[in-house]
Design goal:
This protein is α/β, with parallel strands linked by helices. It has a single domain, classed as SGNH hydrolase (Rossmann fold), CATH 3.40.50. Helix content is 47%, strand content 9%. It has 10 helices and 5 strands. Strands 2-1-3-4-5 form a 5-stranded parallel beta sheet.
Amino acid sequence: MRETLIRLGIAAAVFVVLLFAFLVYVLLASSSPDYWAGEISEFERQDVSNPPPKGGIVFVGGRDVRLWETLEEDMAPLPVLNRGFGGAYLDHLTYFAARIIKPYQPRAVVVIAGAEDMADVQGRTPEELLGGFKVFLSALRAHEVSAPVIFISIRPSPMRAARWFGAKRANGLIEAFAAARDDVIYLDVASLMFTEDEEMRDEIFRWDGLSLSPEGYSLLSSRLKPLLLRRFNSPQSNLLEEPNEQF
């Protein structure tokens, strides 16, 4: 009996070690842009069978964009295109910009990213995140995408509460960077995700404590859509008519 228990204990320990190693492998692998190449190829296949109109608003990012199933409905009548994939980092958006942004000749680009960068197992500093955003912006211009970029503030989540301090600092750096430019808009949504007691609002997160719930997307829409409607309510509208407006 004792030997059996020992064997079971050893087997359980080995299983835990292997599981941990597998999870670390997945996390490290997903930090490489090539990990998401299949999803990018799928977008391109969709473009062949059902070409999206050019000149719309392209949403790029990871989880929050990918899971935004009601994006078109929430942003109607604005022409939007969802190009969210995996758990994309800012570096991944830069890497695939020529394939998921440039072809659509967007009038505006909405970026919802940064949370995955801050949660990376290798560690990312707020300054590195700002640097990554600058590289992304430079890549767009190099690809002759002149559209303004709207950066949605990195949001908190219960699962990553320990990372919030760094994410909040990154938001501040990007906000200051955007304020000095005419082609970037920083939109704060994160501050609305807390109660008056500075506790995260449970109803805006799914059961996993990480993904946004329908209420969370509704909150995001309530901040973003008025901005887009105000500046993009017709094909002739230009999002840069009122540069550096504070939100």
